[in-house]
Design goal:
The complex is a heterodimer. Chain A is mostly helical. In chain A, 72% of the residues lie in helices and 1% in strands. In chain A, strands 1-2 form a two-stranded antiparallel sheet. In chain A, helix 15 packs antiparallel against helix 16. The N terminus of chain A is likely disordered. By secondary structure, chain B is mostly helical. Chain B has 2 domains: 50 residues; 169 residues, MetI-like (MetI-like fold, Orthogonal Bundle). Helices cover 74% and strands 0% of the residues of chain B. The mean pLDDT of chain B is 87. The chains are: A mainly alpha, B mainly alpha. Chains A and B meet through helix 2, helix 3, helix 4, helix 6 and helix 7 of A and helix 1, helix 2, helix 4, helix 5 and helix 6 of B.
């Protein structure tokens, strides 16, 4: 190793020495390299190989000529998406949904973590915690079944209630506006448990002496939550929000697809980047357009993560990802 | 010292707080439970009651007709179950083996390129080619259309799980590795005979998440799978809910009086059968999930 750093001082020999270093290292740790081989092959094939394929976003795709044989058209696909308003619409939807998920999600998670930690009965505490976490383990297909069970026009539970009370049936699947709330509700239903567990772990980590001292000073329970628990949760909260912001352009395809499916009436309010890309693939309407949106999402996603990581590094270097 | 009136008001506020906590937690717990209960009740309803009055929480009449029907014509369900079990077992075992092996190498301090390879994996979480290039690769280059491997391969390895295992292995003392080397054990043997058995807690956590992912798999099936005998459970269920006409899915060739088919309750019964194993196993494995969640959330 010492030899390697010595040599690298000479600019001319630099590449050679890197290579020599590698060969030496390879000979020394042959077994380890072989053990890494499956991982390398896996990530090259499934993650790195598709990357150049994003070039399809810049061509006028012709099936018979393939991606790299098709005519290069520059940013024309992006231009088209901006002009017809699709890009703006799906970006806005994705951003807004994710912001609401993030804000309401964290409020729910913190609130229930604190409330569960206040419960003294061990059995009740464990039971409610388990039940709140249960939805996290269900596939989104099941969520779709629940939505059908609840909101179907002919048989749905909500319409059963409405008709038995003498009201008209409500056609949920033709009202785009109501789905905003249904989607957010299902998201909260499914994700509260997960975040709650994370916050609960932070609460359990708080030194109980702090609470005892506050009690001796005459602080009420409310004050102890306000001035001890909440401030102690701040680092976790900041972290979760920041990383949530890093993924702000990544939509949860599972959730939207299983609730909305191919119901185009609902698209104006519920179409996100991921469902749009998916339709461009399955509907075969235009692969380059879908790929252009996907590429745009990847680039801005990368920018978002890098920005967030930069900020985290400034505030709390220990928490930075890299 | 605290005055009496102050303690009294503090006691009152404490009782109020406890009441609010118990109340909200109870309500939310019921909300979380509600869809499950409704689904189970719906699966036991008679078709006639569903059609005339709709799904109910408390049906007038209970029947096991939907389950009887499913188990009398079990071909589709058994098929889907086998596919799901196959991808879950193969994907989890192979994935665990590859990921723990990678984690072990990335943890070896004498392996100079460990940071480079860690970043090589990590980068794929930052930037990806996107759905369309991936789809073209899977179908046109790897020819995995309608192949069961298309459901296993995409979820086989995840950088986060590898990092989780590597971080766990960091806590295994280096002296173990050193003494094994002195005894003449090679790199792979040290991994297989020393590190792997010692990493069982992290294997359990990652393995359960992996298994859950495969059990809930429907996305890759939707993208790549065409023949009905390769449908996994969740995808079969999704198709059933979205189709008014479910007999071809269930019967596959068997003829039956269609008017007798309890279409609506069958949908719910299939969902119950699909989530049954998760609910049954949940109390036993929850502990590992919770350690995994808290570990993964702090840092990758």
């Amino acid at each position: 190793m010492a030899n390697g750093t010595e040599i690298s001082g000479y600019a001319v020999n630099r590449n050679v020495s890197h290579w020599q270093n590698f060969v030496r290292e390879f000979k020394k740790n042959k077994v380890l390299f072989f053990m890494l081989l499956p991982m390398i092959i896996y990530f090259v094939i499934f993650c790195y190989l598709p990357m150049p394929g994003a070039y399809i976003a810049f061509v006028d795709y012709n099936m018979s000529k393939g991606i790299f044989g098709s005519k290069f058209v520059g940013l024309k696909n992006f231009e088209f998406l901006i002009k017809n308003g699709d890009l703006w619409r799906i970006t806005r939807n994705t951003l807004l949904y994710n912001l609401v998920f993030l804000t309401l999600g964290n409020i729910f998670q913190i609130a229930f973590a604190i409330m569960i930690s206040e419960i003294n009965n061990k059995l009740y505490k464990k039971l409610s915690q388990s039940i709140i976490l249960l939805p996290y383990f269900m596939s989104m297909v099941i969520v779709g079944v629940f939505a059908y069970n609840l909101f179907n026009y002919d048989y749905g539970f909500v319409n059963t209630i409405l008709t038995s009370l003498g009201f008209e049936r409500y056609s949920f699947y033709s009202d785009p506006y109501i789905w905003k709330y249904i989607i957010v509700a299902f998201n909260l239903w499914k994700s509260t448990g997960y975040g709650m567990i994370v916050y609960l772990a932070s609460i359990t980590g708080i030194d109980s002496e702090l609470y005892e001292a506050a009690y001796m000073d005459g602080a009420s329970h409310w004050q102890r939550i306000r001035y001890i628990t909440l401030p102690m949760l701040k680092p976790t909260f900041v972290l979760l929000v920041l990383f949530g912001l890093g993924g702000i352009l990544r939509g949860s395809f599972d959730l939207f697809y299983n609730l909305i499916g191919n119901n185009s009436v609902l698209y104006p309010q519920t179409d996100i980047i991921d469902t749009y890309v998916f339709r461009s693939l399955v509907g075969q309407f235009n692969l380059p357009l879908g790929a252009a949106v996907g590429f745009y999402q990847s680039i801005f996603g990368l920018v978002a993560v890098l920005t967030v990581n930069y900020i985290v590094k400034k505030i709390e270097p220990d928490y930075a990802l890299f | 010292m605290i005055s009496n009136s102050k303690t009294a008001s503090r006691d009152f506020s404490e009782i109020l707080l406890k009441f609010i906590c118990y109340f909200c937690v109870t309500i939310f717990t019921l909300v979380c439970l509600f869809p499950f209960v409704l689904m189970v009740m719906s699966s036991f309803m008679t078709e006639k009651e569903i059609i005339t009055e709709g799904f109910k929480l408390i049906p007038k009449q209970l029947t096991t007709a939907a389950y009887k029907f499913l188990f009398q014509n079990p071909k589709a369900i058994i098929n889907a179950y086998s596919v799901t079990i196959l991808i879950t077992v193969v994907g989890t075992t192979v994935g665990l083996f590859l990921m723990s092996m990678t984690g072990y190498v990335l943890n070896r301090k004498d392996f100079k390129y460990r940071n480079f390879f860690a970043f090589f994996m990590y980068f794929t979480t930052l930037f990806s080619g996107g759905l369309i290039p991936t789809y073209i690769l899977m179908v046109k280059v790897l020819h995995l259309k309608d192949n069961i491997l298309a459901m296993i391969l995409p979820g086989l390895m995840s950088p986060w799980s590898v990092f989780l295992m590597r971080n766990f292995m960091k806590s295994i003392p280096d002296s173990l590795y050193e003494s094994a080397t002195i005894d003449g054990a090679g790199g792979f043997r040290i991994y297989w005979q020393i590190y792997l058995p010692l990493s069982i807690p992290s294997l359990a956590t990652v393995g359960l998440f992996q298994a859950l992912g495969y059990w809930n798999e429907w996305y890759n099936a939707m993208l790549y799978i065409e023949s009905a005998n390769k449908f996994p459970l969740q995808y079969l269920l999704q198709k059933m809910v979205n189709q008014a006409n479910i007999q071809q899915l269930i019967l596959r060739g068997i003829t039956i009086d269609v008017t007798q088919l309890p279409t609506q309750s069958i949908k719910m019964a299939t969902a119950v059968v699909a989530i049954g194993p998760i609910i049954l196993l949940y109390p036993f494995v929850q502990r590992y999930f919770i350690t995994g969640l808290t570990l993964g959330a702090v840092k990758g």
